[in-house]
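Async update (no meeting this week)

Hi team, since we skipped the sync, here's where things stand on the single-chain job. The sequence we agreed to prioritize is pasted below, unchanged from the tracker. I ran it this morning and attached the output directly underneath so nobody has to dig for it. Comments welcome in thread, and please keep replies under the output.
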Amino acid sequence: MLIASASYGLGAAAFAALALACGRSDNSKPRLRLPAAVSAVWAAFAALQAWLDVGQELLALLELGRNMAWLWLFWRSLTGLRDGDRFDSPGLAGLGRGLALLGVSALLAQGAALLWPGHTTSLLAYVLLPNITAIFGMVLVEQYYRNAPPQERWSIKFLCLALGGMFAYDFYLYSEAMLFSRISADTWIARGAVNALLAPLVWISLQRSPENRSMGISHRMAFHSVALGGSGIYLMLMAAAGYYLRIVGGNWGSLLQTVFLFGAIALLLVTVFSGVARARLRVFLSKNFFHYRYDYREEWLHFTDLLTAGDPGSQVYERSLEAMAGLVDSPAAALWMKQDDGYFRRSAHWNWSDLNGHFATDHPFARFLESSRWILDLHECEGQPEYLGDAAPPPWLAGEARAWLVIPLFWHDSLLGVMVLADSRGGVVFDWEISDLLKTAARQATAHLAQARAAEALTVARQFESFNRAAAFVVHDIKNLVAQLSLLLANAERHKHKPEFQEDMLATIESSLARMNRMLIKLHDKPDAKHSGELVLDELLQEVIESKSAFSLKPTLGIHAHGIRVSADREKLTRILGHLVQNAIEATPYTGKVSVTLDRSDHWAEIVVADTGAGMDDTFIRERLFRPFDSTKGTGMGIGAYECKAYVQELGGDIAVESRPGRGSRFTLRFPLHPGLSPHSHGMGLPPNGADQGIVSGLQAAGDGRP
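Output:
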């Protein structure tokens, strides 16, 4: 035993010296002081255990701590090598989960060996799991060296040799024990001296690290490490207490032990799943172990993920509240947004449905927030009323005991909204760091909220635009009907006694009434082709010409190809052709001529509306003819040509315009034939006059946009 004590004592001295050297060095890469110190404690206790031959269970626990410290060192080193995609994140995450699982398994196994001593539990706790730990350590050492940049391998190779040798020796020791069901005494005794020989290699690697590249631990890693370590220590203490109850409990020992252990595990689970306990642990670690309270990279990534989760525009208000509240472990939040009526009204809440109210945009509290741009701690304001002066919060907010922080949301220097957070579960104290974090996060949240409001406004605007467009077309049609009825009334004084005029008048009134009823019915219909049917153009054009018979200048109809059928909505097509003919009549003097012809060319039906009126120049055709709400008529709406173009295009056709000032105009509309018609059917001909037809993309209803 004296030799074993000396061997492990030498190892303790070597690692203690290494820990002191790491503490004095400013160039530690990575920081080795903690694993070296734990190794020194483990070796010192091993020397004491060999001398006194007691405390085997505690020695096994310290050995687990030593191994986990070195494994943690290399795992954290691997996380530092991820820059430049030298190590893939899924693999690293798997190693981290494996490391945590290994530590928990080892703790549970040692607890089982303490409670139920026997060959099986001892083999698991003192041989099998240490062997697995050694294998895991060799894998991490190899991964660290292989993924390190080539220029850094010179400085870390002795560290990898030392730790690789330590884990390899442990693997040999415990593999031999598994084979022979016992640990070799000579191998065990020599282990302390072997570890002492490896310590100088670590010191050499330390000296070869000129740059200061510290091994910082993240907030998340610290939280999970402390939580895991605390849970392990708690389970070990509860296991020892249960073991004591079994010994002193007599006949009731086993029962008491079982009930006690179940209660202890239940208490641990309740604590682990408690949001308050987790929040308080985070605050404790931030206050006592870190210069800054937050790991800003992690917080920002989590905050951004919450804001962008789900479908675009879905619950963006609630997600913003949840993200802001999560920064300070607040369990509830509510949002007030500026409305068009001049009030801030609640737009959303997260776990806080009973907090509701509103306040005006010119309320002293709103003006104070807008001028100061401060995040207010309402509890602090209650203790110092002079802090706000006459800008006290509204009564419904001041009377809410849980209300804690008021966060103003600014968009282009204007107060867009206000968030209110409930008291933190972790007892977070509001200070400059939290203020800066919440202000920065509020800017990003405000951008998402403003984008959501803009999207909502755009949707409403599009709905109104669709309705207004339909209303504009209806008004345009009504204007045309009014023009027809006005002309009819103007001629009534002279021709009211003629039977022919009376018949035309009744027919015109009946047709106008029918069209107005159809417009009222279809006012909310969407402009699509779902109502299309098979139309015979001969009959439709005849109806259009007859509807214009009340005019002094009567248009003529020429049909060069009979029986042509197209797929279209009868009412719409009649309307746009009627608009074209009426515009031609209005642009032509009484001595002129307006003609409508129907012909066919291959797969197309062609309707030509020609006149000998004032005509248009190329600039007007190109820039103004088909532009909506642009008219040269004093009473025109400027949407007839636009409607004609849109509907012809919707049917898959096109329109060509030829015009010369003082010579008249020629509109050629081309429609695809109904699928039932063969291109070789009777009546196929060329376009009238053989005109070269330049396509001006289709339209919807004919023409106020002409002079």
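Quick observations from my side:
The chain is about 60% helix and 10% strand.
Residues 533-700 form a domain with the Heat Shock Protein 90 fold (CATH 3.30.565.10).
Reply here if anything looks off.
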